[in-house]
Amino acid sequence: MESPRSTNHELMSSPHPRIGNPRDHDFETRLRAAKNGAEWAWAAIYRDLAGTVSGYLANRGAAEPDDLTSETFLQVARNISTFDGDESAFRSWVFVIAHRRLIDSRRARQRRPETTNLSVRTGGAGGDVEEEALDRLTTVELQSAFEKLSESQRDVLALRIIGQLTLEETASVLGKRVGAIKAAQRRGLLALSEHLDLTGVTR
Amino acid sequence: MRRSGDYLGEMPTTKVFDREVELLLAGTPIEGGRLSDLAPVVEMIRTEWTTAPSESEVEHFARSAASAVKVPQSAPTAVTTLQRTRLTPRHGLTPRLATVAMGVLLMSGTAGAALAADAAVPGDALYGLDRAFERVGIGSGSTDERLEEAVVIAAQGRSHEAVGHAVEALSQHSGESSAVALSALTVASENLVHAQDTAHATANVRVWALLTYIAENIGLDRGTDGREFGQGVAQLARDIGGGDDPTGAQDPSVAPAPGQGQSNNPGTGAGNDGSNDGSEPGNGDSNGNVEDHGRPAESPSVTAPGQNNGPPAESPSVTAPGQNNGPPAESPSVTAPDRENGPPEDSPSATAPGKENKP
Predict the structure, then answer these.
(1) Helix-helix angle B200-217:A4-13, to 10 degrees
(2) Which of A120, B146, B257, B291 is most buried (CB neighbours < 10 A)?
(3) For the whole prediction, is pTM greater than 0.90?
(4) Strand ranges (DSSP E) for chain B?
(5) Contact between residue B87 and residue B208 where contact means Cβ atoms under 8 Å apart
(6) Interchain CB distance below 8 Å, B8 and A77
(7) How far is A101 from B55, CA to CA, in rounded Å?
């Protein structure tokens, strides 16, 4: 251990503990491994986030949500060396990339208004309880109600509900203040409730 | 028969309503509350659009991602070659940071990449944008990130700037290792001034090595690790002055490894053979011949004895003994051994050697 060289070897061969919040340790380890190209880390990242990212993209009108999801995650992989932050920041970062990809893809097929393109996943999991609660509401009704919301309300609600991001994460993805996110989700949910006639108006 | 406007009218405060919204979105709405009708709708939106990826999809992605990490696409080849030559000589110095630095370097050359700004270092046009991202919390400007930037700056040969940047980063960081690293950087800075004329290129490489080591190991504040860190940085800082090089690995052109020195020298070693006949492997004369990056046969692969099967001029074999069998364009081979960071039970492939065989 006299020379830096051998010291370094020693350090590399045993994952040295770093002082920090133990809760962050798993993510730190995973991020570190991901930066080194460890497949297990990338599998874990994809397993965690691909479902919500692709759901978000599908909901927000991506023509090919699966392709866009792949592109998003490949960009994440290519740029991972530039990322530094905790798990929450990482989620935001992934959704920032997804969001930009989405906007790019919309531009690429501009002649088509994206609102006609809301694609719904078939075979949603829907358990018994939900089924019972939802059987009076069809997917088509839900889609059309969702489409009536403003663009920013849909962005916010999709990120909050499907992306399962926090208020702060959503704000950082959309580059807005938390207050603006709160306002958008308030109005969006109320409008959704109105469009779906949930407020008591006879269907 | 209420309309949504009625909610707004009877709402005590927006704050309370926002709290109900949060509970609704969290899947735990207040029973019978104003928003409880929306609970099944929220649930339906969530389940309709969210699908868990299949395991085969996960595997497929993991494979492509793992190789995408090592090979940033649209990497400008000119830069690659140049950086490779310069990055080559350190063996035994932290592969992870080398990967990071290489990735950042390659990416900062592609202005079109959507997130290139995040890879920007001071002096780049995109650095301001990078800072802007940090303000919104993306890629926080932590000490670690600043240190990694310093590594990148050093890799570009801007040693003075790099040291300054690292000092700035470390002075905002508490802990014994920071203090130790700062004092090493002071030594480094002095040595850098002296080395300027005689051993410029070597000094740059050694500054890079020092910063890489610091960035990789900062935070080792106590115990054996802390002492080793102190010894490590002190040694690397001294090396910058061009003094004794106990590892013999800093400058490959003058410190051939066993069995390779002889074959490299004939015909190419003009001006160097006199001081180094290859019979003293590992005993570096680090003051000699620092400007010979252009000599292909001198490729620093000499620092990885017996491990480098690739063509010397093309495969830098920076830090990855036994891993450098892949084609150079696909494996800068600045990655590798750090993989055992992962939980072993989860990561059969993470520790497996011969990673370059994967697509």
Answers:
(1) 40
(2) B257
(3) no
(4) none
(5) yes
(6) no
(7) 24
> How many domains is chain A built from?
2
Nearest partner of A58 among A121, A147, A142, judged by Cα:
A121
Residues 40-79 of chain A with CB under 8 A from chain B are 40-47, 50-52, 54-56, 58-59, 70, 73-79
Q: Choose one of A118, A147, A166: the last residue of a domain.
A: A118
Q: pLDDT (tens digit, 9 = 90+) per residue, B282-306?
A: 333 444 343 444 334 333 333 333 3
According to the 3-state scheme, what is the secondary structure of B245-282? CCCCCCCCCCCCCCCCHHHHCCCCCCCCCCCCCCCCCC
Instruction: Please state whether A2 falls in left (phi above 0), alpha (psi between -120 and 50) or beta.
Output: alpha
Query: B348 and A52 in contact by Cβ < 8 A?
Result: no
Portion 156-185 of B in contact with A at CB < 8 A = none
Contact A81 B104 (CB under 8 A): yes
CB contact under 8 A, B231 and A7: yes
What was the ipTM of the complex prediction? Answer: 0.73
The answer to whether B167 touches B182, Cβ cutoff 8 Å, is yes
What span, in angstroms and rounded, lies between the C-alpha atoms of A108 and A90? 27
Which chain A residues are Cβ-neighbours of B330 within 8 angstroms? none
Model confidence pLDDT, tens digit, residues B305-351: 333 333 333 333 333 333 333 333 333 333 333 433 434 444 333 33
Q: Which of A62, A91, A118 is the last residue of a domain?
A: A118
With contact defined as beta carbons under 8 Å apart, do B236 and B185 qualify? Answer: no
DSSP states of B170-220: HHT--SHHHHHHHHHHHHHHHHHHHHHHHSHHHHHHHHHHHHHHHHHHTT-
- What is the residue type of B221? D
CA-closest candidate to residue B217, choices B235, B204, B230: B230
Distance CA B306, CA B281 (A): 13
The answer to whether the Cβ–Cβ distance between A1 and B231 falls below 8 Å is yes
Domain ranges of chain B: 4-49, 75-357
Whether residues A93 and A112 fall in one domain: yes
